[in-house]
User: What shape does this take?
Amino acid sequence: MSTVESSSPTKNPVLSQKPSRRSFLRQTSIAAAAVTGYFSFPSAARAYQSPNEKLNIAIVGCGNKGWHNVEQLTSENIVALCDVDTNYLDHAAMVHTKATRHRDFRKMIEVELKNIDAVVVSTSDHTHAPASSIALDLGKHVYCEKPLSHTVSEARALAKLAAKNKLATQMGTQIHAEGNYRRVVELVQSGAIGKVTEVYSWCNKGWSNGRFGPTSPVPANLDWDLWLGPAKERPYSNNIHPGNWRRFWEYGGGTFGDMACHVVDLPFWALNLRHPIAVTCEGPEPHPDGTPEWTKCTYEFGEEAGHGPLKLHWADGTANFDLVKETKDHSGMPLTTWGLGVLFVGDKGMLVADYGRRQLLPHDQFTEFKAPEETIANSIGHWREWVEACKTGSPTTCNFDYSGALSETVLLGIVAFRTGKRITWDAANLKATNAPEADAYITKEYRKGWEVVGLKS
Assistant: This one.
């Protein structure tokens, strides 16, 4: 088995008085631009002689969804692999035999700085921003799984870093690239159901009730300290990694954090949404350890491009809204049987959709309806969009500007749930103007050496 990197915290340039190793690396990378072509227009990555030239990609998180991402990028060069769990790392290394192996993504990016063009982050939510921010700060393109971050402030910081360094970014909301979402957006924006004033979105899935159990020995394959990363130090318990971390506030956001970026993406896109002005969320009594069995959230949006004031609702777990329960699809079944979906309510009718279906309601009102002309081009593929953007500066549809605002909105629902208040939101200043206690959830504390680059402490 190849040698792997050990944990060795590095200083954050934002917090250090002296230039850090990372700051030095960034400066030397920029200085090398005149010779190597790095940091050239239109992006901060190296200039490509041909779009056929392969990207050199570093992988942070090799298991589960991380491995699926690797499989989608085999057209490129996978040159570095990182995972805190050697079971996943060994499996990836058996396939990508020439890639270097690492346990600590901070050290991997430092060691491989000159060899990589881009980084893919597929870790638990609480390490999305630390890993992505280091890569962005050092001029590397980034693909990161959803939600983009663990907190609202992290999402804003990542979007700013990506824009500042002109980097190609994509959040892993893969369904965004499929044709059904495009056709739904066209229907809404063509006025098929008139002016939309309310949207209901839901997912019946349930990631809930995480509780820190009895401590147990750390498995030999896992570096628990590195897995914790920015989270507070605590003894290992066997009900967290690899399958249940979403149930814990310290590492994930329950069903809300897992699924809302996928589902709410559709109305966010179709209605040109950006930032809510107020958020309310109810559910069971909040527990300090784990996420709830259900939530019902309402986002209030003001006047924005393409729409007037509207309300966007979200429900998960065992909860849903009366209108969704009472409305029947074309087969006569209640919409709750769809598992997940979005119901747009307009002044001329309704439109319901999930990942692969779309129906205008009530059915008999639209029997003669003719679909609008297709105006949104089909995607070349969610991962391919990002690869081409890295090489040519072409756009991605879930770049960190768009997906950062989407993630902020989703995560604000969790903030509202945990505070138990209707939050009035000042998006420009990332402040709940009526709830100072929300600050504890809008941002968070980090263990030394794991801070998010670009995020003020």
Remarks:
- The two ends are 40 Å apart (CA to CA).
